[in-house]
């Protein structure tokens, strides 16, 4: 196993264990999620476009934002694109039209049922909110390791703000990265919004 991959896997293991421990203390997680969601909604509200279009994700139970993220973003954005995970490791996107419109997808992630769009639809977004297991101070993002988001974002990085949502302990000093890893521009934690130095 290459050294970078080995180091990434070690960080993933630590971050997953920390999230599991946090999920066990539901009150702490709820407070952290509420803060992250409030900062994300405020970020959308502050965008120059008075009718912003964003892309986001439907959080898994252990991910930042939990049940509140999409509702909060929908209250501020004109539209939200959510990813649809395909069996070939690629993402497609569909418009979020409310919780009732979601179905469980290939990876157990809730996804919209409407018409699908390719990654080029992301270029029309004013901001893209991303899940992560960890972010470093240079904007390197550690996902779950399958590369879905890196492939989807490769063509639009630098044109649309990429914003990762993580818990405070998941903002770390350094994450090893490969040439194909797409860094983020900002991170939102329960402590606030932070621009990253790339």
From TrEMBL:
Residues 1-26 are annotated as: Disordered. It comes from the Bacteria. ATP binds at residues 8-12, 141-149. Substrate binds at residue 63. It is an enzyme of class 6 (ligase). InterPro entries: FTHF_cligase, FTHF_cligase-like_sf, NagB/RpiA_transferase-like. Its cofactor is Mg(2+). It catalyses: (6S)-5-formyl-5,6,7,8-tetrahydrofolate + ATP = (6R)-5,10-methenyltetrahydrofolate + ADP + phosphate. Keywords: ATP-binding, Ligase, Magnesium, Metal-binding, Nucleotide-binding. Residues 1-13 have a biased composition (Basic and acidic residues). Belongs to the 5-formyltetrahydrofolate cyclo-ligase family. This is 5-formyltetrahydrofolate cyclo-ligase. It comes from Corynebacterium pilosum. The lineage of its organism: Bacteria, Bacillati, Actinomycetota, Actinomycetes, Mycobacteriales.
